[in-house]
Amino acid sequence: MPKCIAQIVCLFFASSALAAVNVAAPSNGSTVSSPVHYSATAGGTSCSKGIASMGIYTKPGLLAYVSNGATLSADLTLSAGTYNTVVEQWDYCGGAATTPITITVSNSSGVHVTAPTTSTVGSPVHYAATATSTCSKGVASMGVYTSPGNLAYVQKGSTLSADIPLSSGNYNTTVEEWDYCGGAATAPVSITVGGNTLASLQASKGWGGYGELPPNYAICPSCGSGVTWSMAQGVSSPSLSGKAAKFSIGGKTPYSDALWNNHLIGDGSTQGLPDTNETLTPSIHNFTYDAYFYGTNLSLAENIEFDIAQFFNNTGYYFGTQCQIVNGQVWGVWDPSTNHWITTSVPCKPVSNSWNHVTIQFERTSGNKVMYKSFTLNGVTTNLGWEYPPYTQPGWFGVVVNFQLDGNSKQSAYSVYLDNLSVSYQ
């Protein structure tokens, strides 16, 4: 059972509306190089059995690729020309939905950037690109320079997908490819990054851990043997940065949870941002939670939760999300006005024994509502735009970040490693 805010038992509501396919790449109307990278997730379906498979038509009647399940990732080799492609999903009840994607495949060598698509972006900045080369051996690798001489990211092969945290400012970035014959090609990408980024938070001071016991899930600094938890920082393996954090949960009471919390801005700030004039916190409208997580057996987790909360004027804006690994392998979002988790149809299928990259974007709207903007897991983005009212929370002021592990029906002990955790705000 997932954790409930304000000690209210969780309820779940399943989405059943049939929706179009969510295509993250390529962009409709874009010019790309071959092989063309396709990335998509299925929309919702009224079929109780869910999505059976997904596929790509490169022209009417020509099904070029099929994969089982509700996610799709494929690289299709296409000759130069314009294609009216279609990405389609099929459910187990015989239903189907499509999204048309028109692309132009270029036969020229070089770098073809498909993201970022706008000049003003938030952090982390998502880069997506493909490359071709006249070298018979092909493209060896691709990378992103955030300034001259500053190679911020490198990836093997002829496709690139990266989320790079950048502080506010103007950047003349460059995407470059290197082939196996010693050649190279570049594409300039000038961007303006808004907002601020608090990086490497998993290695930061100020984390507090708490237990939560069913059925009320009230926070307890010490919960006896019902639920146990620990956090170890500075872990070098497994790690991407050399300073990962290991979060562990155990205990004897089924469905118990462990919550870790860090005060970023305002009251109790661990980042040097006390906001004593109480002007910074109310000015913030957009948040991005970005992290990599790793587990040897993620199926033991009932849920893994990623949250940001903002408090001012006796009001709480709680942006709560959880990867529901046991309950459908989908994302859940928190409705702060009714204290309920809402089960979505957006897939959340992290891979064990591998680093999973999650990016979640939130917004406090101009009308002061909680908006869930998008989920991105391992390069697949689903845009949302769901809004909920806030709730009353007297006495708090500032911004906090949470990470939580939920116990399963046997309260099986497990650990999750967190690395490169950042929170961006603007």
Structural write-up:
It is a single chain. By secondary structure, the protein is mainly beta. It has 3 domains: 22-105, Immunoglobulin-like (Sandwich), CATH 2.60.40.10; 110-194, Sandwich (Immunoglobulin-like); 198-425, Jelly Rolls (Sandwich), CATH 2.60.120. Helix content is 1%, strand content 58%. The protein contains 1 helix and 33 strands. Strand 28 and strand 29 form a beta hairpin. The two termini are 34 Å apart. Mean pLDDT is 88; it is low at 1-18.
Please summarize what this structure is.
This protein is mostly beta strands and 426 residues long. The protein has three domains: 22-105, Immunoglobulins (Immunoglobulin-like, Sandwich); 110-194, Immunoglobulins (Immunoglobulin-like, Sandwich), CATH 2.60.40; 198-425, Galactose-binding domain-like (Jelly Rolls), CATH 2.60.120.260.
Quickly list its features:
Immunoglobulin-like; Jelly Rolls; nine-stranded antiparallel sheet; 58% strand
Stretches where pLDDT is under 50 for at least 5 consecutive residues are: 1-18
According to CATH, the fold-level topology of the largest domain is Jelly Rolls
Structural class: mainly beta
Report the end-to-end length measured between terminal Cα atoms: 34 Å
For the biggest sheet, the summary is: 9 strands, antiparallel
**What's the gyration radius in Å?**
22 Å
What coarse outline follows from CA principal-axis ratios?
globular
Q: What is the averaged pLDDT score?
A: 88
Quaternary organisation: single chain
What percentage of amino acids are in beta strands? Answer: over 45%
User: CATH superfamily name of the largest domain?
Assistant: Galactose-binding domain-like
Query: How many strand elements?
Result: 33
Just give the CATH class of the largest domain.
Mainly Beta
Number of helices: 1
CATH architecture identity of the largest domain: Sandwich
Count up the domains. Answer: 3
Helical content, roughly?
under 10%
